[in-house]
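Batch manifest line 592
LIGAND: sulfopyruvate
JOB: complex structure
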Amino acid sequence: MTSNKHVLSWIDEMAAMTQPSDIIWIDGSEEQAESLRAQACATGELIKLNEELLPNCYLHRTAVNDVARVENRTFICTPTKEEAGNINNWVEPSKMYATLKKLYTGSMKGKTMYVIPYSMGVVGSDFAKIGIELTDSIYVVLNMLIMTRVGKNVINALGDSPDFIKGLHSKADLDEENRYIVHFPQDNTIMSVNSGYGGNVLLGKKCFALRIASYLGKKEGWMAEHMLILGLENPKGEIKYICAAFPSACGKTNLAMLIPPEHFRKLGYKVWCVGDDIAWLRVGNDGRLWAINPENGFFGVAPGTNEHSNPNALATTRRDTIFTNVCHDLDNNTVWWEGLNNNPPKNALNWRGEPWDYTKYDKNDKVKTSGAHPNSRFTAVAKNCPCISSEFDSITGVPVSAIVFGGRRAKTAPLVYQSFNWQHGTFVGSIMASETTAAAAGAVGVVRRDPMAMRPFVGYNMGDYWQHWLDMGKIIPNPPKIFHVNWFRTDEEGNFIWPGFGDNMRVLLWILDRCENKVEAKETPIGYVPYTKDINIEGLDIDEATLDELLSVDKESWKADIENIKEFYKLVGDRVPEKMYEELAALEKRLG
Ligand code: GTP
Ligand code: SPV
Ligand code: MN
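JOB STATUS: finished
ARTIFACT:
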């Protein structure tokens, strides 16, 4: 498919090591995809679902010990440990290459190696970057065909250039002890072995579009962020764009596809989805910050997705979708997950493929008793989303009015606040914290610092990453305003106080009003907080006292948080910018 010497010699080298019996280039054609689906169905790797109810949809189960990203097995192998920083795992590159070589040697014996040329971003756009993933998994090929732009036009766009990201993936033995997700930023190289799960193996996504891209962005003056991109259209037909960074499984997909509450819908408000997970951001000629979504599909959390919480996501998954680790309803050959509806299937297999008894479900032990794994996902085509933005394929992207940070905080963080300026906004991002979720292996519900929702995804030193944010602020003449939201505040019984989901639009409207200087706000030690009257609660069953509570800033819990922030800054280490310490001291002073 190409005469590019850089591509061909690299493939030769990888094939000599992994020793596949066959090499097949993926051309992006429907015929080839269809024949791969058939092959995967024949071996049981995929299960074809009910063609009438779920056309062109498939179910896949991963190994039971391979259901989420593995942060402790993820490495950033820069020449020095200092460059990777304390937040990332690091091994000296030549040592890591040697370790990996052993694991890859002969790992594709008797198997086919698929060559997937893909583009992150619209082929031909200034934003776009090309990658090639080599994999021994048909599941990976079929997912990449949805999640990225794949095909001959990519290889044509690359021409004879050496400028592409090399990705090698082998499932090998799926051995947990020898599972490695490794990045060599200086070599434009990603190597993943012994996993078959999402973020570990779809190398265009977290590995390239966040870890490698964040490194490139630092070098080249742009940003790669764990952010959704949405357009909010007002009744006049004007659309303003917002990017929001929430940690994994904290509501990006939901917010990106929001359906306005009825009152607003009737007035003509609409939300358009540009992206649900990753944004690449650049300064435009007009001095604003512009965003593209480098992906082509959604790898979204299934549990909790339903007709009320996210009808757009649900509609997107009704065709051309690969479901991973959900529950299989055998009566009608469809899929189910917790939170889809109140009718769990009676004749079903759980995510492990075992007969499932829904009456045994225990929400305190989901992994053991649920039908679908808590981190089960759908891989769906972005263009199948009913609210996909007309700018989805735009080569320039969309201009960003606001950047929103957020996380799961039962206390401390109010519903929304605005930073004083870009530098303070960077500080607000740096101190983000959230309860951990099932998206990564490990304990769930533990509060941890997750700066900019990028803790697992920064491809270099976290301190330098914060400096990059500060530097970007200086080169954006007309920067977006920076906010922080928290949909997850709870009462004494642990119930969410804020209704969330579609009603989050009420907060977005305040945010946009602030961007346009249409509304005053209350200055507090942590930033600008709305006056209760300025959050429109028309049609919402919530009283002012509750809203007051949601918007309150509890100084004591903030003071307690300061200690934890200091410890975290210490952990990040020497490269924390001085400005961040100045902001921290200023916050402490304002809190009194
Ligand atoms: P990744 O794909 O892992 O990066 O996650 P994401 O940020 O896209 O997460 P997603 O939108 O799929 O959110 C998943 C979880 O957040 C589900 O359990 C949702 O029910 C819950 N969630 C999303 N929005 C809200 C909200 O406004 N309020 C509450 N209470 N829960 C929400
Ligand atoms: C996340 O964990 O933030 C995801 C899912 O978006 S994965 O692609 O598996 O990383
Ligand atoms: Mn994500």
